[in-house]
Amino acid sequence: MADLLSIGLSGLSANKTSLAVTGHNITNVNTPGFSRQDTVQATRNPQFSGAGYIGSGTTLVDVRRTYSEFLSAQVRSSTALSSDVEAYRSQIEQLDSLLAGTTTGITPSVQKFFSSLQTAAEDPANIPARQLVLSEAEGLARRFNTVADRIGEQNEFINKQMVAVSDQVNRLATSIASYNDSIAKAAANGQQPNDLLDAREEAIRQLSTFVGVTVVAQDDNSLNLFVGSGQPLVVGSSTSRLEVGPGQGDPTRFEVSFVSGGSRQGITSLLSGGELGGLIRYRSETLDPTLNSLGRLALAVSDQVNSQLGQGLDLKGQVGTALFGDYNDTALAQLRVRAYSTNTSNVQPALNITDSSILTTSDYRLDYDGSNYSARRLSDGATMTINPSSPGSYPATLTFTDASGRDQGFELAIDSAPAADDRFLLQPTRRGATAISAQLDQPDQLAFAAPVRSEADLQNRGNAVIGQPQLTSTHDPLLPSVLSGFSPVTMTYNATTQQLDLSLPSPAPAGVVISPASLSVNPGQANTLSYTIAVTSGVPAVTENYSIEQAFSGRPENGDSFTLGFNQNGVSDNRNALKLVDLQNKQSVGVDPSVGIGTGVSFTDGYGDLVERVGTLTAQARQDSDATGAILKQASNNRDSLSAVNLDEEAANLIKFEQYYNASAQVIQVARSLFDTLISAFR
Fold it and tell me: How far apart are CA 240 and CA 313, in angstroms?
């Protein structure tokens, strides 16, 4: 009876524990990361008797956690990837809406500006039409400013979000290290602390939503976590931390540092996965190039419009005033260069734009080793050739070309030598859209008239017609004193040689040469006259070449004359205004300097390319979001199919173990009855 009672008690104890484990499963059905637990029973050691070995009951050998490291690792990696894509998508959708919006984008303002120029060109003396040009120019500049401000605000949000995410990473890392310590102590008795293991696994999964991690199991049941390229975030019960703060090169772009003890390492470019990885990837792949592209477009608009206005005359006969502000203003030029916070000198170079049409959308890094400069284009890592790489004296001006000899469109002015190992971040286009402004406020100063004009002598006997001249190469801006100094140039037709003989006014101005002095024409046919007027002046002598082209048609008679002169009173002249209108379709953005105009894109197409690129990336981000979401759902379902609590199954187990419990109690009852019968027999 004692053996039977012991057997019954062992079953009663085992089933009581099984009921407790089943109840534990049921009550944790909604606990994140909880893994279903099962009891594992085994028979006790049997006792030998003459008839053989007789069983002595059951015992619990383990409370087993239903878990697969492979499935959990899939959930972690899928979570990190999905969070990365979601963070990227949420940001790029905002940017896409900003750039492509009919009320928020740049295209409507560009179209309105050139439409106002077209209207003004139809009546160049109309003051209200000119005033509209000024108003639309101001609207265009403000639109550039507004879009740049919105992108800047998004960058600030990313900075704040990176700080918040790093705080969560550090908090979870500390929690995981604490779990490691507790698990190592609890597992010292040879059994697994299931609930602690689940809590740690859930903490690691949550950490994966913020940053991608690599998990390495240790012999003492602890897990080591690594980020980036192998930086140890958690090792046993000790942790390192991530710190986010202003970047060394650009304080407006926060960077991530890995801090372990007294050492610090920048790991921004090494991080991937999770929300932090998605934000960093979006900033480097989309946000920065977009701001640079927008800045390049603003610089090109400002440069092309100002340059063309500088080739014309206003209503007062003066050279046109710039419509937009000077982008090479000293303060703006210095803002394009950021000294690294690690620099030991106070040298502040200035970056001046030399040709806006050939600018790239990349930033550059300039290093100084104490005697030589070296530079790298950050968008593709290409090494730049610097001339001079080792200035003999200061102030010095550095120019930059790539391996193919392509000029980068800017130069760097340095007043004094930096200290050895100083480093500078060069951002030629980053502030272009922020800094553009309309400065002209007098409509009569818009230079719509061409600087020179031609006319036929009223006494000519032939029917030849000379077209209005086009200056194809000239000083920028125009020098009215020089133009008026050699005016008028007389062209006299010689029927014998069939040439137009060019002559300067008498007495001929000093230092002025016309080349060629005679131009061949074919009477009765369309001709194009091309000649150059070279003007040499100053000490030391500087020669300015004015290249001129104009049409000539009809049949001139011998002695017929034509004149080229300074357009002093061209109030109704709209030739320069038409050239301003043509700028809308001129391919003047992203030009290959080795080929020239025609290899770039227009203002509208340049912005359209930017919108298309962002739109394509947005569509790809949405597809990636759907794909990674499906992968995460599948990974979670696979994990849940093994580890999650099934209430129907647990309810069945509850009934089963209850019956086992009742049966074990019945065994005890039988043993008691037998013992009572035996005792009664001896009374």
Answer: 67
In 3D space, the residue among 247, 287, 259, 99 whose CA is nearest the CA of residue 169 turns out to be 259
Phi, psi at residue 546, to the nearest 5°?
-110, 100
- 603-655: pLDDT as tens digits: 999 999 999 999 999 999 999 999 999 999 999 999 999 998 999 998 998 89
**pTM of the entire predicted model:** 0.87
**Mind spelling out the 3-state secondary structure of 369-408?**
CCCCEEEEECCCCCEEEEECCCCCCCCEEEEEECCCCCEE
Asked if residue 476 has pLDDT above 50, the reply is yes
Mutual angle of helices 575-582 and 288-309, in 10-degree steps:
170
C-alpha 674 chain-centroid distance:
86
- The answer to whether the CB of 548 falls within 8 A of the CB of 564 is yes
Question: pLDDT tens-digit profile of 165-185?
Answer: 999 999 999 999 999 999 999
Contact by Cβ (8 Å): 410, 362: no
Say what angle helices 274-282 and 194-210 make with each other, to 10 degrees.
10
Q: Which two tokens stand for residue 314?
A: 């206003």
Tokens representing 647 are 């209430």
CA 187 – CA 431 distance, rounded (Å)? 59
| Lowest mean per-residue pLDDT among 312-321, 357-366, 437-446, 479-488 | 479-488
Return the top range by mean pLDDT from 134-143, 312-321, 512-521.
134-143
Burial class (CB in 10 A: 0-12, 13-18, 19+), 213: buried
Structure tokens at 381: 């890592």
Query: Which conformational region is residue 217 in: left (phi greater than 0), alpha (psi within -120 to 50 degrees), or beta?
Result: beta
- 505 prior amide bond cis, ω within 30: no
Nearest to 385 by CA among 398, 401, 405: 401
Domain layout of the chain by residue ranges: 2-66+645-681, 291-435, 451-566
